[in-house]
Structure formats: C-alpha cells, structure tokens
Amino acid sequence: MSDIAVMGATGHTGSVIARNLLALGHRVRAMGRSAERLDALRQQGAQVIVGDCADPAYLTRAFEGADAVYAMMPFDPTAPGFMELQRAQGWAMVEALQAARVPHVVALSSLGADQPTGTGVLTSLYEQEQRLRTLQQSHVLMLRPAMFFEGLFNLLPRVKYGGSLADAFAPGLPIPMIATRDVAHAATGALDQRNWTGHSVRELLGPGDLSHDQLAAFVGGVIGQPALAYQQLPYDDAAQGMAAAGIAPDLARLLTEMARGLNEGRVRSLEGRSARNTTATPLQSLAPALKEVYEALH
Ligand SMILES: NC(=O)c1ccc[n+]([C@@H]2O[C@H](COP(=O)([O-])OP(=O)(O)OC[C@H]3O[C@@H](n4cnc5c(N)ncnc54)[C@H](OP(=O)(O)O)[C@@H]3O)[C@@H](O)[C@H]2O)c1
C-alpha cells in the first residue's frame, strides 16, 4: 500500500484515478478547492486536502511523504490571463514536488506538448514539461493524451441553437480522441506500478482517429438529427463565439490557435498509433450522457 496524492480529484481524470487507487488499496490524498465536492471520496476512504494549486505551501503540504503524485494543471475557462496563471501554477507544482522530494510523478500533459510554439493553449503544457524535467530527484512520467471525447459537450449549445456542430478544425482531418476514463486508467496503472525511471513520455491516442465530419454524424445520430453537419469556422469567428459563450478572450484565442496547430500538422502523435497507445473506450460510450445534456439544454 502506498501514499498517493491526486490533484484535481473532482475532475474528469483525477476523480477516476482517486477511486481506482482506493480500490487497489492505496492511501489516497484527494486534492481540490472544495471539501464539499471531495466529500464523496472522503467517504470512500480518501484523505481530503483542500487548497489552491497556485499555492506552493499547500502543494508541499499535500505532497510531503507521498510515494507518488498525480500532477495536473487545471484551468478556469472564464479567468483572464491563462498563460500567466498556468505559469504560476506550474512553478508552484514543481517547487512543491522538489521540496517534498516526491519519488514518482505522473503528470498530465497533451499531444502537442513537444512543440514550444504554434499550438496555442498547449504551449502551457510544453512549458510545464520543461519545468518538470528540472526535477532531478523524481521519476516523472508525462502522459500525452489525445483530445478528450468530453470536449464534445462544449459544442452542444451551438448544435441546439445554431443547428450545426461548429469549430475551427478542418472537417475531414482525422484527430486522435480519447475517453478521459482511459487516461485515468493509464495514470492509475503508472501510479500503482511505478515501473519507469527518469523522465519519460507516453502518448495515449484513444481507440482511433475521428474527423469532425464523423463527430457531427455521431452527435446527429445520438440526438436524433442524422443530417447534422459540421461547419468549419474561421479562426477569428471561432474565438469570438467562444468569448461570447463566456470563455476568457485570451483563452478563446489560444484554443483556436490549438485548432490551427492541429490543422497545420504541428499537434500530432510522435509515436504513431500502436497497440500500446491505443485505448479501449469507444466514442459510443459518451452517447447516453451527450443525449441527456443536449435534451436538458433549453
Ligand atoms: N480537454 C482535452 O481535450 C485535453 C486533452 C489533453 C490534455 N488535457 C489537459 O487535461 C487537463 C484537465 O484535466 P481534467 O479534464 O481531468 O480536469 P477537469 O475535469 O477540468 O478538472 C479540474 C480539476 O482541478 C481542480 N481545480 C481547478 N482549479 C483549481 C485550483 N485553482 N486549485 C486546485 N484545484 C483546482 C478542480 O476541482 P475543484 O473545482 O473541485 O477545485 C478539478 O478537480 C488540463 O491540463 C488540460 O490541458 C485536456
């Protein structure tokens, strides 16, 4: 049995990792900003440690004595100053991992984090990988997953009110996509086994590549609109649409730059698809939740 700290333990990946690790018999430190939101994990046996991840003292306290840490960079889509905040959180994380001398770190990164520029929002994860590589005392595994299936939820209001699935990605471009639960399962395995040394990178590419035309056909099938089409938006229009929906304008611009990075081939797998980086959960698994969320929109 090991002590494992899980950042973002109420989030898509962290919540599943925390539950998985508890089921494997580990002592879990569940981290986040709200004791209330973490209470379900507390009831399942986790120790809840509440604080803001820009605070190195909080992180050091949470990491002290841990055998391993699941390290992720959260972001608030409505907060301005995305890059500045990510840098502050990134330094706080690395400072705390260093101070607590954590032996094993599984860090959530992304495809595209190999590129220093030209990938918009992902340059933050490039920078964080560089910071993590300064940790001399820790074995750090950087997981680079594909785009999350769950991002489709963000496109549903436009489907409902605009009649199309719309984004800045090229319509026919095959993009690797993954279920967050598969990212969580890979992270759980790494945290449990800790069978890697040094600083390494592992891609997670989901079950297959999907184009946005295919995504529109899938969503259309789920919501009973088989003719639903994908509409590629110009980058500026996509950014303005996100800002109008409440996303901070600087982040909206960075998200469209990420789409441009994919369209122009900068965000891509370096490993190439293999049995090792292909994960099991199909897009179809999202159908019931997508339908429910779509139908709940007014
Ligand atoms: N979306 C994609 O397609 C994609 C692809 C590859 C990589 N990624 C990366 O995945 C990461 C997001 O992972 P996820 O989806 O598992 O997270 P998520 O569902 O967005 O959850 C964020 C977690 O962080 C916590 N949190 C938020 N702000 C915090 C703060 N200031 N201090 C402490 N805790 C805070 C939240 O808890 P509370 O709100 O309860 O505090 C929550 O548990 C990002 O780094 C993103 O770049 C995303």
Chart the SSEs and their pairings.
Layout: E1 3-6, H1 12-23, E2 27-32, H2 39-43, E3 47-50, H3 56-63, E4 68-71, H4 82-99, E5 104-108, H5 123-132, E6 139-145, E7 147-148, H6 156-162, E8 165-167, E9 175-178, H7 180-193, E10 199-204, E11 208-210, H8 212-222, E12 230-232, H9 235-244, H10 249-263, H11 287-296
Parallel strand pairs: 1-2, 1-4, 2-3, 4-5, 5-6, 6-10, 7-9, 8-12
Antiparallel strand pairs: 9-11
This protein binds NADP nicotinamide-adenine-dinucleotide phosphate (NAP).
Radius of gyration equals 19 Å
Order of helices and strands: EHEHEHEHEHEEHEEHEEHEHHH
DSSP strand content? 15-25%
Query: What's the CATH first level of the domain at 3-146 and 179-204?
Result: Alpha Beta
CATH domain fold name of the domain at 3-146 and 179-204: Rossmann fold
DSSP helix count?
Answer: 11
The biggest beta sheet is recorded as: 7 strands, parallel
Distance, first to last CA: 48 Å
- Please mark out the parts with pLDDT under 50 across 5 or more consecutive residues, or reply none: none
Helix residue percentage: 40-55%
Which CATH-level-2 architecture of the domain at 3-146 and 179-204? 3-Layer(aba) Sandwich
**What integer is the average pLDDT?**
97
Strand order of the largest sheet: 3-2-1-4-5-6-10
Record field, number of beta strands? 12
Shape assignment? globular
Relevant CATH superfamily of the domain at 3-146 and 179-204: NAD(P)-binding Rossmann-like Domain
Which hetero compounds are present in the coordinates?
NADP nicotinamide-adenine-dinucleotide phosphate
Structural class: alpha/beta
